[in-house]
Structures are given as C-alpha cells and as structure tokens.
Design goal:
By secondary structure, this protein is mainly alpha-helical. It has two domains: 91 residues; 32 residues, no CATH class. Helix content is 48%, strand content 9%. A three-stranded antiparallel beta sheet has the order 1-2-3. Helix 2 packs parallel to helix 3. The structure holds zinc ion (ZN). Zinc ion binds next to loops. The site of zinc ion has 8 residues, from loops.
Length: 126
C-alpha cells in the first residue's frame, strides 16, 4: 500500500465520506452495501474506519470507497495532500522480521536487561 493511500485511510473518516456521497449519515447498524446490488438483506456494517460487507465478504477502506463513489474527490486530494514518502513508506514496506534483530532471553531476566539486549542487537546503544 502506498504511503499516500495509507494517509487517506488514516486521516479521513468513512462516516464523513459516506455522508458526503449519499447525503445521509452512515447507519450505525447494518445497511445495504454500496458495493453490490442488493435490496433485500442489509449486509454491510461500519467496521473500524471502513465498511465490512458480509455478502461481498470484503472489507472496504476509505480509499476503496472514494475510488468507487467519489473519484473526483480522490483526484482533488491527490493534488492537494502531499505525503512524505520517506517518513511513511520506506520503513513500513520492509517486513518486520527483516527490520529487527530478535534476541533470546530467559523468563527470569529483568525487562530492562532484555530491552538493553534488543537495542544492542539492533545497533542502538543505550
Ligand atoms: Zn457487498
């Protein structure tokens, strides 16, 4: 996921975006999924900052929502919202286990000693 998409998903509220598109508040309970045609069973629900649809069996992010229902707003945001790719993207793009050297320790060791060991193993002297 690009840093810019992550930024969009982290900073915009799915409820606000839903209201902008449909002109009404996002229901707090189940509602009709905007991503698939359905008039019988409300299968979608707000889930964290996105929409979970039990019929599509998919979680839609704010970015997914804007891309489908408000592409002009997404294009405007692309023009105006700049994201620092260095501060956001590069570190996160490496899998965690490739970034951190893990250490082994005994359950009886003090937490401070374990932390010191981890910092030293990763080149961070304390
Ligand atoms: Zn759906």
């Amino acid at each position: 996921m690009s840093a810019w998409i992550k930024h969009i998903n982290d900073t915009l509220d799915i409820g606000d975006e839903y209201s902008l598109v449909f002109g009404k508040a996002m229901p707090s309970g189940k509602f009709f999924c905007p991503f698939h045609a359905n008039v019988n069973t409300p299968a979608a629900k707000r889930y964290y900052n996105g929409i979970k649809c039990y019929s599509c069996n998919k979680f839609y992010t704010v970015y997914d929502f804007l891309k489908a229902f408000n592409p002009s707003r997404l294009a405007m945001l692309k023009q105006t919202v700049q994201v620092d790719e260095v501060g956001y993207g590069t570190v996160e793009s490496a899998p965690l286990k490739e970034r951190i050297t893990f250490v082994s320790y005994e359950p009886t060791e003090r937490i401070g000693d374990i932390l010191t060991k981890i910092l030293k193993a990763n080149g961070l002297e304390v």
